[in-house]
Design brief:
The complex is a heterodimer of chains A (408) and B (80). Chain A is α/β, with parallel strands linked by helices and 408 residues long. Helices cover 38% and strands 15% of the residues of chain A. Chain A folds into 2 domains: 204 residues, Rossmann fold, CATH 3.40.50.1100; 100 residues, 3-Layer(aba) Sandwich (Rossmann fold). In chain A, the strands form 3 sheets. A 6-stranded mixed sheet of chain A has the order 4-5-13-10-11-12, with helices on both faces. A 4-stranded parallel sheet of chain A has the order 8-7-6-9, with helices on both faces. A 3-stranded antiparallel sheet of chain A has the order 2-1-3. In chain A, helix 10 links the parallel strand 10 and strand 11. Chain A starts with a strand and ends in a 5-residue tail after the last helix. By secondary structure, chain B is an alpha+beta fold. Chain B has a single domain, classed as ACT domain (Alpha-Beta Plaits, 2-Layer Sandwich), CATH 3.30.70.260. Chain B has a 4-stranded antiparallel sheet with strand order 2-3-1-4, with helices on one face. The chains are: A alpha/beta (408), B alpha+beta (80). Chains A and B meet through helix 7 of A and strand 1, strand 2, strand 3 and strand 4 of B.
């Protein structure tokens, strides 16, 4: 049974039935799923949740689905105590939520699993999305599992590794001659013409909800307590807002203390930082920018949820931080070389920002801080290929000792 | 006739120009503003355009050529 009650407009408050729709007809603002929390509170408890099988669907009662789920084994990813990295940054209570370890190597499996489950409930037989990599792979993988058709749209200049990462699941792969904005515009037209479940257009409100499982997991893994600080990367800002929504829901359901005292820190690449820019100018309106950064998965110039993400930052007493491409690369390397976790550039954004926030005293030494790593490094490993400097030796002892021996 | 929901973001130099008025007149498009925030140095408008498909295409191309950023109102679908 689903406790989803309606789709709710955050701007004007108008409500719609639970259906495939993402915009308020009246003011054209995004819609959110709202729930019957009183009914939900009667069935959700720490004890009941503890008995559920591992994976994101252990929190099914808090998600807007009713029937059988489309699950490729997502969730219950490690929350690692990061003592070595914490030592480098001067933080005593640092944890890494390593969401690289989902089936398609990014947190996208969480929202996509919810969206595809919902698409099947609504009777769609075809899924579609536009993406630069992580989302495409996740949608294609879930379509394969659900025996649905998938159309995946990517800009023609996307990295070959990302094409393989999606193509392996056998979607209809479409490369579009144009940049990301052009792909975006094409998909806006397609959704008018075809009765497809577009993962982040007409299924967007449901897609968004999947990211809440990240905060549920972290809280449960910490022994039912919310972190003091969350450091999270933002592209559209959507999942950042859902981390907060997840924490608020747990408090509302009596599973953690109320009010939530977590400070939410939003991080972006300096080459695509419209939300951080707005934060620093004291505005709640986000002015679009033209993205130019190696952190492609965060390269959204016109973030649809920027305004709401800024409200979360403000409400939680958090902050926002942007870092350069050079700092991002250093962040990727620092995480790998202290905690053994190879993240994509978005992870470098988080670690480099964390370093700045800690150095400036914004995040304090004894605060329990969780840094979220949302995607794995191997798909974008070309950005750190300069790190490869092997010793070249002949297959004999003399050569080894001559070339490397002095360092042993 | 088709409807298209879009967001126009205006640079400072265009704030005082009647872009939306001219769009409606020149391309026979009905413009229906739903949300907006315009100040002296910047502005954005969320609106619905209604008209013949070809006219809307030409109208959006004209607005873009004037220096206005035009984004579809569907949320950003390129992420990750």
């Amino acid at each position: 049974m689903s406790y989803a009650r309606a789709l709710h407009c955050r701007k004007c408050g108008r409500e719609y039935p639970v259906e495939a729709r993402s915009l308020c007809e009246s003011c054209l603002s995004p819609l959110d799923v709202s729930y019957d929390y009183q009914a939900m509170a009667k069935v959700v408890s720490r004890r009941k949740l503890a008995k559920q099988p591992l994976g994101m669907w252990r929190y099914k009662d808090l998600l807007p689905v009713s029937g059988a789920v489309v699950d490729i084994g997502t969730g219950s990813t490690p929350l690692v105590r990061a003592d070595r990295l914490g030592g480098e940054l001067g933080l005593d209570e640092l944890y890494i939520k390593n969401d690289c370890l989902n089936p398609t190597y990014s947190f996208k499996d969480r929202p996509v699993s919810v969206a595809v489950t919902k698409a099947r409930e609504f009777g769609f037989d075809t899924l579609a999305c536009a993406s630069t990599g992580n989302l495409a792979a996740s949608v294609a993988a879930h379509a394969a599992k659900a025996k649905m058709k998938a159309y995946v749209f990517v800009p023609a200049d996307v990295e070959p590794g990302k094409l393989v990462g999606a193509a392996i699941y056998n979607p209809v792969l479409v490369t579009v001659n144009g940049n990301y904005d052009d792909v975006n515009r094409l998909c806006a037209r397609l959704v008018e013409r075809y009765n497809w479940g577009f993962i982040n257009i007409n299924l967007r409100p449901y897609y968004a909800e999947g990211s809440k499982t990240l905060s549920y997991e972290v809280v449960e893994q910490l022994g039912w307590r919310a972190p003091d600080c969350v450091v999270y990367p933002a592209a559209s800002g959507l999942s950042f807002t859902r981390i907060w929504k997840g924490l608020e829901e747990l408090a509302m359901l009596g599973l953690i203390e109320q009010p939530v005292n977590t400070h939410m820190y939003l991080t972006q690449a300096a080459g695509s930082s419209p939300i951080v820019n707005a934060f620093h100018s004291g505005s709640l309106h986000v002015n679009p920018v033209k993205p130019d950064t190696i952190a492609k998965s965060l390269a959204i110039g016109n973030p649809a949820n920027g305004n709401y993400a800024l409200m979360v930052v403000s409400q939680s007493g958090g902050g926002a931080c942007a870092v350069t491409d050079e700092e991002i690369l250093d962040g990727v390397k620092l995480l790998a070389q202290t905690e053994g976790i190879f993240a994509e550039p978005a992870g470098g954004v988080v670690i480099a920002s964390l370093k700045k926030l800690a150095a400036s005293g914004v995040i304090k030494k004894n605060e329990l801080t969780v840094a979220f790593i949302t995607g794995a490094g191997p798909r974008t490993q070309e950005i750190v290929s300069d790190i490869v400097h092997p010793f070249i030796v002949e297959p004999n002892l003399e050569s080894f000792e001559k070339v490397v021996g002095v360092r042993v | 006739m088709v409807k298209r929901q879009v967001m126009f973001t205006f640079p400072e130099k265009l704030i005082k120009e009647p872009i939306i008025y001219n769009l409606g007149r020149q391309f026979s498009i009905v413009t229906n503003i739903r949300r907006a925030d315009v100040s002296e140095d910047k502005g954005w408008v969320v609106l619905e355009l209604e008209g013949a498909e070809a006219d809307i295409e030409r109208g959006i191309a004209w607005v873009t050529s004037r220096g206005v950023r035009v984004d579809p109102i569907i949320g950003d679908i390129v992420e990750g």
